[in-house]
Design brief:
Length: 374
């Protein structure tokens, strides 16, 4: 392993390789394709760039947003009054800051002041409909990625004997070869989590946004450590176990946003079943148990990558428990009121909806002042 003097400590054998081995034992061999640590410096970020391009320049403008406008905005528009319908069309065309000429024309048509039109357009950007469209787009993107990634992971894993017997994950460890399919699974997932970290501040706010951010950081760190230390087999199985429940979750959310109540209830039921099986049973009692009792027991040094992975896996499990509590709250609300509201959602929707209700009151208050000035 080549290293500069400043990185000698970081890449020390005692931190990264099992006891009794050195980095020289993992140099390129004709019969084995070892994971290359330097791949993590280049390829995940290239994939991150492509994922962001795919999301914001292809899928969002040409697929997810048109679907959201057709499924959410148009049905909502049928229930709007003429004033809101006129201003909504302006907002969709020009955003919240249209040309002054458009503002004056709208004010004249509606009998409002220019200030009233500007206020409505600004608040419309935080309206419930626009928030729902934003969330629909984000859920559509995440479902697309998780469905693609889990399909690839299944294709890679189905013919591997160590997928069905975790004890074989440690057969001849650490001399494991990484297939091209495993390489793509790791690089795609790490690149995706990096893209989520980079765009975190622009995503819809939820009460667990910080926890979600920490989850992505932990995921990148665990995957990177597993790749460098060649715990690649268990890491890939862990990826599939932790990602597969996001598919029915995102489907349930998408169904709820478009008003498909029965479909949402069914997808939510599937999500709860998959969540309990993967996050509360398979992850702690199969994945963590195998990791802790097999490979990680070989770490003799107090500061070793295996211990780092162990701490991060426990942190992920604690986050799973807190999310399980949130899911239990949703189920409780569903049984009590019949509504499946995501308790992690921010209060922004409620505030913006209340603001919309108060807009007509504010307009009425300003109308006498406008009449006097005229």
């Amino acid at each position: 392993m080549n290293s500069t003097p400043t990185s000698n400590w970081f890449w020390t054998d005692a931190l990264w390789v099992p006891s009794g081995y050195t980095w020289r034992d993992f140099q390129a061999r004709a019969d084995l394709n070892f994971p290359k640590p330097e791949d993590l410096i280049i390829y995940p970020f290239i994939i991150t760039g492509y994922l962001l391009l795919l999301k914001y320049f292809i899928l969002v403008p040409y697929l997810f947003r048109p679907l959201a406008l057709y499924s959410i905005a148009k049905p909502k528009a049928l229930n709007q009054n003429p004033e809101s319908l006129t201003l909504t069309r302006i907002s969709e065309t020009h955003g919240c800051y249209p040309p002054w000429k458009v503002i004056v024309q709208a004010a004249t048509t509606l009998g409002w002041t220019e200030r009233q039109v500007q206020r409505w357009l600004r608040k419309n950007t935080r309206s419930k409909v626009n928030n729902t469209i934003t969330k629909f787009v984000e859920c559509g993107w995440q479902m697309t990625f998780y469905l693609t990634c889990c399909t690839l992971e299944l294709i890679v894993l189905l013919d591997k004997p160590w997928f069905y017997d975790l004890k074989k994950c440690w057969s001849q460890f650490p001399f494991h070869s990484v297939t091209p399919g495993m390489w793509w699974c790791y690089m795609l997932s790490i690149g995706f989590y990096w893209s989520e970290i980079i765009t975190h501040s622009s995503q819809p706010k939820r009460s667990d946004s910080l926890q979600n951010f920490i989850h992505h950081v932990c995921a990148v760190t665990i995957l990177s450590c597993a790749w460098i230390s060649n715990v690649s087999r268990l890491g890939l199985i862990n990826l599939l176990v932790l990602q597969c429940n996001d598919i029915p979750l995102q489907l349930a959310k998408l169904s709820g946003y478009v008003g498909w109540q029965k479909t949402m209830d069914f997808c939510f039921f599937v999500f709860v079943a998959v969540w309990c099986a993967t996050r509360l049973v398979i992850y702690p009692f199969v994945i963590m148990r195998a990791a802790f009792s097999e490979t990680f027991s070989q770490a003799d040094s107090i500061l070793h990558v295996y211990h780092i992975i162990r701490v991060l896996m426990v942190a992920l499990f604690i986050m799973n428990l807190t999310w399980t509590y949130s899911i239990a709250q949703v189920i409780k609300n569903k049984l009590k009121t019949g509504a499946s509201k995501d308790v992690r959602s921010s209060d922004e929707e409620d505030r913006s909806e209340e603001e919309e209700k108060n807009i007509s009151v504010q307009n009425a208050r300003e109308e006498p002042a406008r009449t006097k000035t005229e």
